[in-house]
Amino acid sequence: MTTATTPVNNSPDRKRLRTIVKRLVIELGYLEHCLAENPQDADFRAAVASLDTAIDRLNQHLANRRDRATRRAA
Prior knowledge:
mainly alpha, 2 helices, elongated
């Protein structure tokens, strides 16, 4: 039996993106904990809105990169 492996792209952009995603996950976990304790806190609600925006922008960036890669491959 053979196992196919995909090459790992360790470019600086990929590493930076991985670091950003890790940080977002940690921040979301912390905010989830804080909101469970005090769901009406305006500061936490604003922080959640900011993180939602960051995630939306990250998703758009990743979609654009995927689209560019697909066009190059075609």
